[in-house]
Input
Amino acid sequence: MANDKPARRPRAETPKGFRDYFGAEVTERKAMLDKITAVYHRYGFDPLETSGVETVEALGKFLPDVDRPNEGVFAWQDEDADWLALRYDLTAPLARVAAQYRNDLPSPYRRYAMGPVWRNEKPGPGRFRQFYQCDADTVGSGSVAADAEICAMLSDALEAAGIERGDYVIKVNNRKVLNGVMEVAGIAGDDKEAERGIVLRAIDKFDRLGEGGVRALLGEGRKDDSGDFTKGAGLSEAQAEKVMGFVNASRIVESELRDGPPRPDDRIPGGMGLTVSNPTEQSEHAGRLWNWAVLDHLMRLVGTTDIGFEGIKELGEIADLLKGQGYGPDRIRIDPSVVRGLGYYTGPVYEAELTFEILDEKGRKRQFGSVAGGGRYDDLVKRFTGQSVPATGVSIGVDRLLAALRAKGRGVADSAGPVVVTVMDRDRMADYMGMVGELRAAGIRAEVYLGNPKNFGNQLKYADKRQSPIAVIQGGNEAAAGTVILKDLILGAKIAASATLEEWKDRPAQVEIPRADLVAAVQRMLAQ
Amino acid sequence: MANDKPARRPRAETPKGFRDYFGAEVTERKAMLDKITAVYHRYGFDPLETSGVETVEALGKFLPDVDRPNEGVFAWQDEDADWLALRYDLTAPLARVAAQYRNDLPSPYRRYAMGPVWRNEKPGPGRFRQFYQCDADTVGSGSVAADAEICAMLSDALEAAGIERGDYVIKVNNRKVLNGVMEVAGIAGDDKEAERGIVLRAIDKFDRLGEGGVRALLGEGRKDDSGDFTKGAGLSEAQAEKVMGFVNASRIVESELRDGPPRPDDRIPGGMGLTVSNPTEQSEHAGRLWNWAVLDHLMRLVGTTDIGFEGIKELGEIADLLKGQGYGPDRIRIDPSVVRGLGYYTGPVYEAELTFEILDEKGRKRQFGSVAGGGRYDDLVKRFTGQSVPATGVSIGVDRLLAALRAKGRGVADSAGPVVVTVMDRDRMADYMGMVGELRAAGIRAEVYLGNPKNFGNQLKYADKRQSPIAVIQGGNEAAAGTVILKDLILGAKIAASATLEEWKDRPAQVEIPRADLVAAVQRMLAQ
Output
């Protein structure tokens, strides 16, 4: 019986938006995460590993009353009618765990977690639907000391991973200050939620739209290049000015510090009694002045509102706590320019930026930018228990940080290929396996060629593909003479690439040695 | 407007069949996997990390023409109509990768992989729907040297993980020998597939049913305790005898070696020219004799069939190769009792068993059993490319091996709690954070108490829950005097548990030391 439709072969393809990681891509990430988690461990954080699958109900973004709740997540219906989904971050599972085990976990609970998360989004260049996150959170502490600790730990973790001091800065802001801005701008009321949303989105677009674009969105609205009109928040000139004073805070303070007279002292005005710093050493003066000047600027902007004042006070406390541990504004500083994710957070927010420049895909220089961010969120556990639980934490963008380390030529793990023992005589496979056994016992990465040994050229091509430093060769003559030949493939590649053999003549790329000296001779050649 | 149905709070629960891993559960597994992968690395294996999600088409067990192909896997339909699924093992993704990148990967390709896999099965005690696997495979080598290498590597990996020599044995069998058994039993033909299936399942049930039960299934059939009848393969007495000779091979050889006369030499009969071993040393005699005697027994059983003879020859070669590297039958031995997964494999199969006894859930002693298994499979890549690619590999049951290490009291990672700096005076938080900063800088795991500091008892309870070795205390008096108090919580617990204080009187559980000596004094106390 003939089939009219012969079965098509399955496609050997990763699903759209997913990718595979090979060799050094895996080991380098692991080496980086090992260094980061060693810091987390030293800070008293414990590891937590939840499964990749959660109930949609626990993830919380989606409701089981729609037919297919997979907007943004990968979801499916379990046989018993529960909707399940792949976790989209590590914070939602933490909230579930904090509620589920609330009677057993220490409080406060410091935990770190790392692993893949999944997003059901349109993939793009460099955007994948599975990627790594590495988080650290403290659940159950309302103290800003917990926020300060996360910032200090993030600073230590970045340096442990290989980002040098001076190549990064952690910027700290406070959601409460922004709430104060909304209040002084007269859009704090319950009836102004729409306006606040427009203002938030406008602030968030500053980098792209510039001051003019943001001002247009704060006012009547903005027509973009394509002619599309986006409705604005309808603020008056005076209201918009308040918001812009916040948006531009960092730049205003920067120019004041550069051009203006030195400040007479470094007390925060308004009698708060916060001693942010006392610049005794000239070298630290500018840095310490920064935090003071920013808080001063914010105080003038929103210090008259309760919520704004509280936010500024918290920022001052954070700066004080960090100073007590030696983290100056060169590493961690108050900076109102951090706005990302503000809608999600309830208090201090922080973001780690890498300050060195790289070339983008078009060859233009640009700052590397953000590699980690987080802040205080007090309502995630409440969903489950009805009780508000204060929490704060950070998430490191693992792939971005790894890309940064590669851009700086750091973070490269040991990716040396193995010594390859070639097979000249198929019947003496046991001898060749004995050789690799000896090499491995001495801690040397080694393998025997396991393909078809007929074509010796293929064996050397294989060794080349494996980035092997040395090929070991023993044919019948050598076996009879009790010797082996070592071929220095690194030197061989250099000779092949060089115009003249002259410079290499003192160092032969191939040596014949007694079989008994195999391990010692390989060790010598690897050490060269 | 009142809601008739107030929104129910979401349940804080892991989905059915999933679990969370805390603290030492995570670090101990990681420590074990780090040791295993270091061995894999030394053998020249490269890491590969594929994503958790594959197309159902690539996974291959399921067809997109049924409405919901989630039998055994978690699957869902992507927006563009592709069915996606969570991987159920690490071999199917490897086959996809080997086909997808066949022009770029070295050949043979040695890779290791580890990570979670998912099974959509009914969860049970100790059975979870997400669990870890750790695999190593060689793709592109048809040589039995590749199988021997995997067995040697598995032996090294088990010892590196902490399983002592003598506590495990790796048993090697060959699918081809079983095919020979089918042939001599007269059920090798295409028309006998049903019979072969019944025979395979019967062999697989030997441990549960015993010889009588298996014989019944080979014959007419078997009625179980509940009265249900299972139809047998309908073999004649003579046919069944051939199969039972295979099923009982290990036991027959064992009794022959124990009771029978010593063998005159250790050449395999039949003129194959395989020198399995030559027992020169008396201490190794019994072990070496084992492999010889098993092959001899199999030779008498199936040596007359081409396929059986080939299988025995391969087993002899594997034994020779391993002997050349010093792996005797005390670590790796030929053993026909390994049948699991035989349906899946095409050549040598192997399984690592732990030989020490543990107590089962009912308090009865039993052998720990299998922790890893694998074998040769030559057709997985063919699905994609149409070309057969020989491959062999092993999968370690990560959770089982970890349970074994715990049962032996090994493999316990550093799970010491942090030094806890308590908070006596909320206003001096910066001082307390300075203390933990100093301790951490000295490499000591330390944290400051971040909960509400009002109730000091709660702080000590917290330190207890954290398994903290030392609490650091500095109230106003100590601060004024420039001292801190160290409370030895381990000693304190011992004193509390002991009947008399007499034995502890020379070692105070609490000392007051100068603030400047904090790090040195903590180091001394931790070293005690």
User: Anything to note?
Assistant: Chain B touches chain A through 100 residues (CB under 8 Å). The longest strand of chain B covers residues 348-359. The longest helix of chain B spans residues 282-302. Residues 62-69, 264-283 of chain B have pLDDT under 50 and may be disordered.
